[in-house]
Every structure is written in structure tokens, then in C-alpha cells.
Amino acid sequence: MQRLLFFIIIAGIFTSCRPTEFTPKPAGYFKIDTPAVHQYKEFMYPGYPYQFEYPIYSNVERDTVFIKDNPNNKYWLNINVPSLGAMINITYLTVPSKDGFIRMVNDAYGLSSFHEKKADYIREETYRNKYGVTGIIYTVGGNSASRFQFTATDSLHHFLRGALYFDVTPNADSLKPAADFLEQDVNHFLETIRFS
To answer: Is the whole-model pTM more than 0.85?
Structure first.
């Protein structure tokens, strides 16, 4: 009787310990909540050689990391959008000469082309705003570190370069809603940038 009971318990253990059939969940991403509307305020700080409008749901901070290395970088900024984990990095340089300007344009192109390794494509588009500022917008497709990069210049004295970054591993699909939303803010920045 004890043997029969022992075999029943052992048989029960083996039949009850069969692995259950696993059904994976379909792939998906977290929902990204973007602000309801695009609204802007003026960036016009005393002593800065440029002004622009930036989103009210962001904050502007000096890029203190590079100021320590080079005091000429004192006009470098970060426009942070904490709710989306995004940052628009702004670098500013004065144009020393015609050759210096050409070198700056080539450097900006090189920095944008650096993303070709991960990019599906890089689309270049020139623009000119109502203040006479011209430049190039680089739209980078695929899983690159930066979706938008741009330059803004008066071609004589001022040269500004910017790039949109997210504080996550690049994944074009999951970042698409946030990147699409911020594209309008980048374009608004370029429409309103002006030099003093």
C-alpha cells in the first residue's frame, strides 16, 4: 500500500511539473505622452550674440562641461525637454575668416555624416529665415544618436550648430512620436534664430 501511494505521489509530481506552454507578448513600446500644444517663449539673455524662441515645456541651461575646457565656448547651451528625455545641444562660434567659415561648415557636415554608420539615410535641406539667417537641416533616419542636426549662420560673424539627442539607446521606432513632436520645435527654433 505504501508503495502504491509512493508511486502515485511520484507520478503526480512528474505530471504536474510539466512546463507550461509559453506565449510571448507581441512587441510594443511604452506610450510617450507629448505636451498638448506647442508654445514658445523668448530666449534673450544679455550678452548673448543670438536670440530665439524655445518651448515652454523645456529649460535652457549653459553647457558648463565644455566651458571649463575652453572659455570661447561660453555661449554653448542645452535646451532640455525633461518630459521626453530630450536635449537640443547648441554650440556657437564666431567666424574668424572666410576660410574659417568654410572649415566650420565642413566640420558640421562631417559631424552629421558621422551618423551614416547607423543611419538609413541623411536628408539635407537648406533654409533661410526672415532674419536673413541661413543654414542646413540634416534629418537622419534610422537608429542614429541624433534625428535632427542643423546649422545657422549669417555667413560673416556667427556660426551656430545644433543637434537633437535623446537620453536613451537609439531606437527609431520607439522614439518616433517624441522625435516627430520635437521636429516642429526644432523648425520653430530655426525660424526665430537671429544674431545681434
So the answer is: no
